[in-house]
Amino acid sequence: MAESTKNRVMEIRAGLSHALGAAQVALERALEAREAAEARYQRIVAAATARRRKLAAARDERIHEIESWHDTELAALAGAAAGAADRAAPGAAGEPWHSWEPTPLDRAAELRVGRLILPEAPVPAPSRAARPPAAGRNSDLESRSGDREGRSGDRESRNSDRESRSGDRENWSGGAWAGAPGEVTEAWAGPDSEPPESTAGPVVDEAPPEVPALVRLLDHGHIVVEGDRRAGDDVVAALLLRALGTSVPGQVQIIGYDPENLGGGLAGFAPLATAGVLTFVGPGALDKLLDELVGHVRRINETVLAGEFSSVRELHAATKRRPEPWRVAVLLGGGELSRHQRTQLDRLLRTGAACGVHLVIRGLAVEPGPGIEFVVAAPGDGARIESAGDLPVRLDPAPTSLLMTATCRQIAESVAAGPAPVALDSLLPEAGAEWRESSAAGLTAPLGDSPQGPRVQVTLSDYPPHALIAGPSGTGKTNFIYAWMGALAARYSPDELAFYLLDFKEGVSFARFAPGRRDPSWLPHVRLVGVNVNTDREFGLALLRFLSAELKRRADAAKQHEVTNLAELRAEDPEGAWPRIVAVVDEFQVLLGGRDAVTGEAVDLLEDLARRGRSQGIHLVLASQDVSGIEALWGRPALVAQFSLRIALPRARRVLAETNPAADSLPRYHAVVNADSGAPEANRIVRVPAAGDREQWSALQHRLWRRRPPELGPPRLFDGDVVPRLADSPDYRDLRAGDSTTAPVMLLGQTIDVAARSAQTVLRRAPGRNLAVLGTRTDEACAILATAGRSLAAQFTPAGARFSVVCLDPDARAAAEALHARIPGSGFYLPDDVSWLLEDAAAEAAASWPADRPHFILIYAADALPGGREAADQLRTVLRQGPERRLHVLGWWRGAGLLRDSLGGHASRTDPIGAWVALDVHGSELSPYYPGQGAPNWYPRPWRALHFDRSVHRGAEVIIPYGTA
Ligand SMILES: Nc1ncnc2c1ncn2[C@@H]1O[C@H](COP(=O)(O)OP(=O)(O)OP(=O)(O)O)[C@@H](O)[C@H]1O
């Protein structure tokens, strides 16, 4: 092989080897570059991953912040909404059915129909993704809902129909979390599938409280229920029950129009029908119903709101009174409306709510308008109420029929029982504003509210001057009188008004106005109270006589000042005390009930007082269970005509005009007040407050009592059941010893009179000045002799007069000895030694000169005088001749005939007995001792006596013996 070839080979080899070396180097370099590039790539990937993590963490944190803000905000808003709803629908307006009960409120409330379904906050995905698969979204939600159940347990327990909140979420598709679980996981899977770690803390999961769905009906508007029929029925029932439960029974009245089911739609409310709280109108009566409701609206606008208020709600807010009930007409279907019906319905929709006339409509087309709420009923969460916009509503279930009927029965019962009493305070002026009125022109006071609202004011003046009140027993006459007196007494001071009160009913109803053992206060205006006078008609007469004398005094003063009525007299004589007098006589028929002298005189006096008292400020108020049977009254049309103020309590007869039946339909505790003699057009109905309550009355009386002028003493209390005490008699207390110039006065008992006077007989030195007590009642006879003896003894010093006490009846011995013990220096004689006394006394009586001091012989049972004829003659001598010699016999005979025997028998003269007191002796037996015509009108009654003194009396007077205690 050639060198050159060899060389060439060598060169080629060298070239190849060089190229290989270069390639090797290039490869190494390339590998290095690759390594460097790979390392860089790794670094970049790591950096990107770290940044992504960071971003994810920041994002999670932000999402969490937003979510918890959203949750808190939502919870706060829901809480505020729930709170506002609770305030708007308190008690029966919003309480769930299981714990529901009627709670009448003082204003109209919004009514709950269900609850609003509120949107929930989204649950952040990272926190969900971070949880183990077993705690996936659903179980997560369940656990959260469990949480919420725990926290809102109290609310849940109030609402048994509430389902689990997770169930709500499942049903509602409008929330932000509504996507499928997979979507969330995919969306957040990073390129390296590494689950990002959440830097966010635990989610604040505050469940918003439940927010009730409320609608406004009473005092606001009308409700139209549309949608599902059954659910709609439930809404109507719930609304009505809540409306009934939030108001005072009877204040919501329901009128049902249900042409398709003939009332079946309101069957649960049927118990209300018995009390008139629910009325049904028949299928053809929609016209009439709508016309009637329109009529109510017109009437309420004209007479109740009367331009002063724009709505009953406004009137109620201003006056605290609600004179008209809410009328809720429930119109359940009815098809096409006629033109007239549509017009009337539209009128009601526009104007009814202001007058408390509201419509609940289902099945009639109604256009939206102000105050009209639309409820679209649907089961589940598909319901809506217009005022809540698009928020879904879950309607409450209907109240159970048991709850409905029990509630309605209770309401019906309390409506039937009548309205709750109004308090007396409602008639009184503000505390501190009492006694500001002048009675110069009359006495005006409110008596209560009328059903239309305004107060009913009643005036006693020149016209109407007198009042006649009637109502069967128990209908509230006495209460009415109390209320009237309270309203007057609070307005007029005792200088302006004086009361004289008499109650012929058994009991002590007027005694509260006088000081008693338990309560020392009295009503300062009251000057006289007569109670338990049903057997003492004379006391009624005494009052009329007293008023007659007062009338004369006023008429004389008017004449003197040349005026004709009280207003003028007061203007002319501003310093004079001329209060208006109101004399109240309850059950006055007792006074006029007899056919005797008492009735005769009483009617004459009444007629005169009624006729002339009007202008002199003397007003009569006569009350009776039944005026229709009082012959003495109706026999005097001129007398009745003066009583132009007529007050009829429920079922009162004849007190109003014959053509006026208003009292027949009067509810309990109401009265017809008629100032025009009962003419129908003058009727005013008034709801009378309860004034019988002792505590309320005492509060007023004490307030006025503390304001009384210091000089004003307590009224005179005449209680026919109480035995008066001699020691309390002003006449007895005035007696003084030692005045020998005037003839001694013998007190005998208390007269039945306006002033607490004592009956008395003066023992002048003159024939006949002896006293005979007649009758068999030992206690009373002894009481009268004790009074006579003690009162006489009080006028003498021990040496100034001689007293001899003779006891001829062992039954009277204790009393006689007691009297003897009370009169120092008196002699005491029993049957054995009375002859000494008589002998002595007869000689004294027959003497020709008057004794230097009087001698009073008190004989207990003079008819039992021993000693035969001789003693009898001596007694006769003493009786006939003694008084002229200042020797007076005060004897007790146990019968009128026995006294006659002592006087000398049947034909004997009776004039030695100038004064007598009869106990259980009939009037006819007294005629011999009763000069003039016939016998006194006297029927014996316990602890009453008839006193006659022929030297001063025209007729006998009834007296009450003083008790010996
Ligand atoms: N307006 C009223 N509000 C509440 N209670 C009343 C009212 N009027 C009367 N009453 C109550 O009714 C009962 C009977 O009333 P009251 O005694 O006044 O009737 P009367 O007609 O005078 O009956 P009588 O003649 O039998 O005494 C009493 O218990 C009274 O408290």
Description of the molecule:
Residues 123-206 are annotated as: Disordered. Residues 126-137 have a biased composition (Low complexity). Residues 453-658 form the FtsK domain. The protein is α/β, with parallel strands linked by helices. The chain folds into 4 domains: 48-88 and 119-207, no CATH class; 212-412, P-loop containing nucleotide triphosphate hydrolases (Rossmann fold, 3-Layer(aba) Sandwich), CATH 3.40.50.300; 442-719, Rossmann fold (3-Layer(aba) Sandwich); 726-960, 3-Layer(aba) Sandwich (Rossmann fold). Strands 23-22-31-30-29-24-28-27-25-26 form a 10-stranded mixed β-sheet, sandwiched between helices. Strands 20-19-18-13-17-16-14-15-21 form a 9-stranded mixed β-sheet, with helices on both faces. Strands 5-4-6-7-3-8-9 form a 7-stranded mixed β-sheet, with helices on both faces. β11 and β12 (455-460) form a beta hairpin. It is elongated and about 225 Å long. The relative contact order is 0.06. Bound molecules: adenosine-5'-triphosphate (ATP).
Give the tags.
single chain; 965 residues; alpha/beta; Rossmann fold; 4 domains; ten-stranded mixed sheet; nine-stranded mixed sheet; 24 helices; 36% helix; 17% strand; elongated; binds adenosine-5'-triphosphate; FtsK_dom; FtsK/SpoIIIE family protein; nucleotide-binding; ATP binding; coiled coil
